Amino acid sequence: MNFALALLLMVVVGLVLMSITQIRMQRAAHRQVGRPAPPLSDLPATGAALVWFHSPSCGPCRAMEPAVEALAAGGHSVIAIDVTLRRADASAWSIAATPTSIFVRDGIITASRVGALPKPTLDALISA
After folding, report:
1. Alpha helices in the chain (DSSP H)
2. Fewest CB within 10 angstroms: 70, 83, 92, 128, which?
3. What is the C-alpha separation between 56 and 39, in angstroms, rounded?
């Protein structure tokens, strides 16, 4: 087998493994929907809130930050959790990757998404 073919095979296998990992993370996030939210001191007991797990070294998190800030400026309850500083909270919420956006209404998880989300998606999910 020549070098180019071996390299192509390695790239394809790597992409397949990455896709499988992403699918597993998304499924784990979706399994949280409908469950009570784990305890969090700054989470309001009633109403809608976004619990946003991020990391300072995460590029997609930094790209998503203006949309999260706009949501908070628009009067919505937003709890931003830096997973490097609040590891226990990230573990309690089963966070596997950043950014992860979890939407809570009246103490129940209504939606959970892994990856960067645009502002219209955040607006729609917190309003649902």
Report:
1. 3-31, 59-73, 87-92, 119-127
2. 128
3. 24
How many angstroms separate the Cα of 30 from the Cα of each of 1, 11, 25, 100, 115? 42, 29, 9, 11, 13
Q: Which two tokens stand for residue 24?
A: 């597993």
Q: What is the CATH number of the domain that holds 45?
A: 3.40.30.10
- 104 contacts: CB under 8 Å, gap ≥ 6: 37, 43, 48, 49, 50, 51, 110
65 CB contacts (<8 Å, ≥6 apart)?
54
**Domain range for 104:** 3-127
Q: 23-74, pLDDT tens digit by residue? A: 776 777 777 888 999 988 888 888 999 999 999 999 999 999 999 999 999 9
C-beta of residue 105 within 8 angstroms of C-beta of residue 44:
no
Written as one string, the DSSP assignment of 49-60 is EEEEEE-TT-HH
